[in-house]
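pinging the channel bc i need a second pair of eyes. not urgent but kinda urgent?? the chain im working w is below, pasted from the shared doc
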Amino acid sequence: MTRAPASAAFDTARREEEADRFGMWIFLGSEAMLFGAILLVLLVAHIRYLPAFAAASKHLSLPLGSLNTAVLITSSFTMALAHESASARRWKTTAWALGITALLGVAFLCIKGTEYAKEFAEGVAPVLGAPFSYQGPDPVHAQFFFSLYFALTGLHAVHLASGIAVVAGLLVSWRRTDSSSRIRRTHAIGLYWHFVDVVWIFLFPVLYLVHA
């Protein structure tokens, strides 16, 4: 049986969901190019200044980075649970899974903030007006490494915070949202969230494990 259209702009709810998914893929493609461009610079610099980058990478907190990786992988699982529960119209499970996903995202940002505070205290954050007090070989290229590190992880944190805000907005409007909209929005948010997680899976080894 054909479901009623969720919007006057579409013939059926299915077509609206397909349009949402297509639009999200286009958006994610543009974001992938953004991260990819910075990652390309980082990888080329790794090859050219490997000793300096490897030494600078040792100043990052591998335990905190590993913990954050585990947190995001877990959030991918809970988001996948929300996706499947929404498809099966198990609304209570969906809402709980979305809430846990958002909390895991907040936990990631808190851990990252702790790591940033440590790096600012050590004077390795390339902030305008602040001295760069790196104690290691080739401080010029080490500063380049930290500049790329903060650019990539900061951009990733902004994307994650946006995802948390969207999940929170969906939960706030949960009772006022019809079933087809819940499914559509949960699926779209899931695509975005998994993209953010995959970006971190790429960032973690090239930033934290280069010295290995």
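so Residues 2 and 127 are 57 Å apart (CA to CA). and The radius of gyration is 20 Å. — does that match what u expected or am i reading it wrong
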